[in-house]
Structure formats: C-alpha cells, structure tokens
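A brief tutorial aside. Many learners find it easier to grasp structure tokens once they have seen a single protein encoded end to end. The record that follows does exactly this for Coproporphyrin III ferrochelatase. Read the sequence first, then the structure, and try to relate runs of similar tokens to stretches of the chain.
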Amino acid sequence: MEGVLAAQPYDALLLLSFGGPEGPDDVLPFLENVTRGRGIPRERLAEVGAHYHLFGGVSPINEQNRTLLAALADDFAAHGVDLPLYWGNRNWAPYLTDTLRQLVADGRRRVLTLVTSAYASYSGCRQYREDLAGALATLREEGLEPPRVDKLRLYYNHPGFLETVAEGVLESLQRLPSEERAGARLVFTTHSIPDSAADVSGPPEGHGPGGAYVAQHLDAARVVAERVAEATGVTREWELVYQSRSGSPRIPWLEPDVNDRLRELRAKGERAVVLVPVGFVSDHMEVRFDLDTEALATADELGLLAVRSPTVGAHPRFVAALRELVLERAATERGERPERGALGERGPSHDVCPVGCCAGRVVKPAAAGADSPFA
Ligand SMILES: CC1=C(CCC(=O)O)c2cc3nc(cc4[nH]c(cc5[nH]c(cc1n2)c(C)c5CCC(=O)O)c(CCC(=O)O)c4C)C(CCC(=O)O)=C3C
Ligand SMILES: [Fe+2]
C-alpha cells in the first residue's frame, strides 16, 4: 500500500481527452467543434462524418475513457492512493470547462492532468494545454479562483506503456498462420500531422525535420521491435508509417500513408504484417476505421495477411504505469527524487513543458507549462 500521503500535494487527477459523438445527431456538431478555425476541407469533414455514421454515429472514445477511469479508480483503491478522478474533453461533453467548474465547487486546488495522448505534438500536447488555459480563463471571468493545474510527463516511453504494446504484438503474431509468423513485418502506425507541426514538436532544442514527434515514435517502435525479437527469437523488419491524414493536399504531411506502404510491401513480395498502432492509447475511431476498416481492407485486396495489434486501453499494466507516473510526479512536487522509468534512448520527458514546446501556428496562452499565465 502506498498510503494516503502518496498523491500529495495533488487533490485531484483530471483525465483530459478528445471527446467523441455519442449518436448520429452529435456527429456534425462534434466535427464542427474539432475543426473550428482550422483549414479542413468540407469534403474531408463529410468523409470523416461517414466514418462515424458507419458506427451508428458513436465514437468508441468516450466509453473507453469511462473504462479507463473505472480501472484507475480500482487500481488507486487497491494501492491506497486516495485521489479523486475527474474527466473533461476538448470537443464533446463532458466539456473541460464544466469539469473544471466542478473541481472548484468540490474544493480541489491542485490538479494533475493526464491527457490521452502519449507523444509530443501540437494536437496531443500543447493544444490540451491551451484548452486548459482557455477553461481556466473562463473560470476567472466567472469570478472563480482557478485551481493550480499541472500535466503529467509524456508516457510514450514508460515501461508500462511499451511493455504492454509489445505484449499485444506477441499475441497478435499468434493470430497469423504459424508458417507466416517468422516472416511477418511490424508496421507501426501513428497519426499523420503536417510536416511543419512535426518539425516544431517537443522542446525548441529538438526542433528540426520530424522533431520530437517522429523521434519519439521511432524510439518507441524500436523498443517494441527489440522486445518482440527477444521474445520470439526472430529479428524482423519494422518501420513507422502514418494514417488519418487530413488538411489540404497541398500541404505536406508525414508519409508514407499506411495504405500506400502496404501496397509497396506486397509488391516487394511481403506476405504478412502486424499493424501496431503505437501512436494511439485506445481503440478509438482512428484505429477502428482507419486501420480496422480501411487498412485491413487494403491488405485483404492485396492478398497480404494483416493483423492489428491492440492499443494499451485500460490494460492493468498500463493503468499501473499511470499510477506510477502520478506518484512519481507527486513525489517530485514534494521535493523528492523519485525513480523515473523510461525505455529507449531518449530518457524520461520533462515534467514542465518549456517555452516554445510543441509550438502552434499562432501563439495562444497555454497552462501547465513554463509559459503558463496561471500559477
Ligand atoms: C496527433 C493527433 C492525435 C493523437 C493524439 C491525441 O490522441 O490527441 C489525434 C487524435 C484524435 N483525433 C481524433 C479525431 C479527429 N481528428 C481530426 C483532425 C486532426 N487530428 C490531428 C492530429 C491528431 N489527432 C490533426 C493535425 C488534425 C487536423 C486538424 C487539426 O489540426 O486539428 C478530425 C477532423 C477531421 C479530420 O480531418 O480527420 C477528427 C474528427 C480523435 C477522436 C477519435 C474518435 O472519435 O474515436 C482522436 C483521439
Ligand atoms: Fe485527430
């Protein structure tokens, strides 16, 4: 038992996520929320709306977050961690601003935030910090005293994340016919983002082609590939590809696209692949549609054997990792020097985003970082 002091000085953990529609009528307003003020072509919106309608207008992401919260609550209780859990989203109810009002009403003054993105990028890191700043500013305008808000370090290279991904790959290999297993390649996937966003992802000293976004994914993929090689005794080829591109076709985004790459691999005579969505933390729409529906259909047409390995979701080892990260940060805030687990070559990420980290196209206030206008 870690004991009730373990999470001090924090008095709440806030799960901050993307949000998704919960029925057909929600799809369009949700997409309008997502794309407000961004240059997403109308046709792309209609196309993405159709993906949601294929699933009854329901994104799996909200249910996955409810499951994660329940698993965190159980894990915390089992380890004597007394930290109330809250949940707010960027694009759909429960909206972040409403959740922060509730936190204040409940008397919470020191909040630690866990976002459902494991890597550095504008969309996965700074934009969530901007969401926090916007919500805190609203509270202040309403005459409420905003709580102090911190954000957990990026967890893409935490042992409990990467070991869970590797275990999923090993299970997935078992789903291939035994004679195809040894030859199967690992095709890691993540969300494509504009090259210009990738280049400025992470702290300024790492800005340059691909930035921290690409470097972190390559580091994570390498660790997983090595674990799988050790466990199977087979060193197989691996690579990182991209999916879910949107935006104007004239603007360069990270490539190759997973579907294009599957075609090339088949043309080169490859027979089997494991698609590893290492860039995502749950089987939300980008996984269910862009991989399970579209990429697996591409593979099928090509006569390429393909299986998709699981995301970490609410796997107990990942949930334990989140608890470890919370306790680590709490200890750091108390002035202790806790162990900070990290696999791969890049070491543990910073606790506090420096100025210029994951820069956006325009400078907006962002909370929970060195440039936060809030305490
Ligand atoms: C890096 C990244 C992550 C991973 C990190 C993280 O998890 O945060 C992520 C996650 C997600 N993205 C999601 C959905 C969407 N993303 C869109 C648009 C965009 N994503 C981008 C990047 C990312 N997105 C970018 C650069 C755009 C272009 C517009 C813009 O600059 O903002 C659009 C608009 C239509 C379209 O263009 O596809 C939608 C509907 C959902 C929910 C899925 C569900 O409902 O289950 C999730 C978890
Ligand atoms: Fe997205």
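Self-check: The radius of gyration is 20 Å. If you spotted this yourself, you are ready for the next section.
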